[in-house]
Amino acid sequence: MRREGKMNLNFTSKIKKKKIRPGRGIGSGKGKTSGRGHKGQKSRRGVAIKSFEGGQMPLYRRLPKRGFNPIKKNPVAIFNIEKIQKFIDAKKIKNSDKIDILLLKKLKLVGKKTKKIKILGNGELKDKINLEVDFISKSVKDKLSKNGSTIKIKNI
Fold first, then answer.
1. Which domains are assigned to the chain?
2. Which letter does DSSP use for residue 154 in this model?
3. pTM of the full predicted structure?
C-alpha cells in the first residue's frame, strides 16, 4: 500500500502501549516471579525496607534528636500572686524589693534559662509590692492597682 502525495514529517500519532500486568503467565514477559527475582524479603508482597542503608548507620539515627523542642524558645516563668505572697510570708522576698527576673533568679525561684516572667491573678495579695515583669493579666492589674502596688511592664 503506497501513499500518494507529500508525507507529513511532523506526523504524531498516539501509540497505545499495553500496560504491563505482572504475574499473568510466561507469555506476558513478567510471569512467574513478576520481575522480583527468587525468594528473599524483597520478593514478598507488602515488604519495604525503609531507611535501610546496607548496615550503615541510618540517617535518622545519625542526626541528633530535636523532636517537639522548638529551636527558638523563650521560656516564660509563670507566677500567681498567691505564690508571691507565700514568698513574702516566708521572708524570701521583702516588700521593699523590686520583684524582677534578676531577683527571682538570684533566689533560685526560676531557672537559669528563663527569659521572661508572667504574673497571673490567682489568689490574694496583702502587701504592697514593686513589680517589673514582661507580661501581666488584667485581674492582677486590677488587684495591684487597688492594693497600691507599683507595676512596670517591660516593652517586648
1. 76-153 (3.100.10.10)
2. P
3. 0.53
